[in-house]
Amino acid sequence: MADVILNVKNLDISFKTSAGMVHAIRGIDFDLERGETVAIVGESGSGKSVTMKAAMGILAKNAVVNSGQIDFTYTNEDGELGTVDILEKDKKWLRKHINGKRIAMVFQDPMTSLDPTMNIGKQLVEGILLHTKLSKDLAYMKAVSLLKEVGIEDAEKRMKQYPHQLSGGMRQRVVIAIALSCDPNLLICDEPTTALDVTIQAKIIELIKKVQKERGISVIYITHDLGVVAKVADYVNVMYAGKIIEKGLTNEVFYDPKHPYTWGLLSAMPDLETDDDRLYTIPGSPPNLLHEVKGDAFSPRNRFALEIDDIEEPPMFQITKNHFAATWLLDPRAPKVEMPTELRERLDRMKKEASKYDSEL
């Protein structure tokens, strides 16, 4: 555990709403090591962003933490390692010591992250002055250097411009520069490429990978795009209805998935080689977490569901050293069910393409 910088244990969160309590996060456990990239994937509403907002201590006021621990290990001002439980600290302490300084977040829409009334330079310098002891001149020089690091040309000129004068891709680069400005230990990327076109998406992903490699920081990706996951992550956590239902090394989850929900997500990816003229969609909708979930939350949408799925929630079954999945299909007593043949063929094809690409590099 020496290199683990984030350790989430039994995280359970509800939200007070006018309709009642929504049980959004239902017992989550995962670790993140120094320099590692972990992806959290799942449909909208599965609890990905809420989990990471809890890790930053920026949950909404109507959030109620029922149980859990979020231990964050970082280097303090004395150069020594310290560990804090984020959930035990108040927002004022977190703003001063953690938010932006040691854990930074890149949100999906750069226009909601940037102040339209302030020029880029002021927004960059402000955060550096708040969290470091640099003078204004040195903070300005660092801001220019950061813009160059994230691939923005004419950095000095861009410092004087406002967000509306930049393209979507450049705005996202500025947001990444702001996130990196105080040398954080952990960078959380919440759908960082959703608002961008495909060519810019690839550049932003490569930029984050480059920065991570150069700085040795840990990264958590929140996404529903499994194509992004394959390119960036070491480990994957698949979330459904507030729980992690499959986790493991990227190659294990991507090329040998065991949970029917993961099969559905992978089948829904666009594929030029498929014979189908329509994209696959997972039938039905996620459960309403206003009501207590009985059994396996995915059961009503799962064509492979067993009788026990409606009665009892499945435990996490271990497949390999790192690969786990919560599905009764892995129970030794369950009938043997393989993933759909079309998906198996698709994954084999993707694996060959990936190995061919790696050999060319």
TrEMBL record:
<keyword id="KW-0547">Nucleotide-binding</keyword>
<dbReference type="GO" id="GO:0015833">
    <property type="term" value="P:peptide transport"/>
</dbReference>
<dbReference type="Pfam" id="PF00005">
    <property type="entry name" value="ABC_tran"/>
</dbReference>
<feature type="domain" description="ABC transporter">
    <location>
        <begin position="8"/>
        <end position="266"/>
    </location>
</feature>
<dbReference type="GO" id="GO:0016887">
    <property type="term" value="F:ATP hydrolysis activity"/>
</dbReference>
<dbReference type="InterPro" id="IPR013563">
    <property type="entry name" value="Oligopep_ABC_C"/>
</dbReference>
<protein>
    <submittedName>
        <fullName>Oligopeptide transport system ATP-binding protein</fullName>
    </submittedName>
</protein>
<dbReference type="GO" id="GO:0005524">
    <property type="term" value="F:ATP binding"/>
</dbReference>
<dbReference type="Pfam" id="PF08352">
    <property type="entry name" value="oligo_HPY"/>
</dbReference>
<dbReference type="InterPro" id="IPR003593">
    <property type="entry name" value="AAA+_ATPase"/>
</dbReference>
<keyword id="KW-0472">Membrane</keyword>
<keyword id="KW-1003">Cell membrane</keyword>
<dbReference type="InterPro" id="IPR017871">
    <property type="entry name" value="ABC_transporter-like_CS"/>
</dbReference>
<keyword id="KW-0813">Transport</keyword>
<dbReference type="InterPro" id="IPR003439">
    <property type="entry name" value="ABC_transporter-like_ATP-bd"/>
</dbReference>
<comment type="similarity">
    <text>Belongs to the ABC transporter superfamily.</text>
</comment>
<dbReference type="GO" id="GO:0005886">
    <property type="term" value="C:plasma membrane"/>
</dbReference>
<dbReference type="InterPro" id="IPR050388">
    <property type="entry name" value="ABC_Ni/Peptide_Import"/>
</dbReference>
<keyword id="KW-0067">ATP-binding</keyword>
<dbReference type="InterPro" id="IPR027417">
    <property type="entry name" value="P-loop_NTPase"/>
</dbReference>
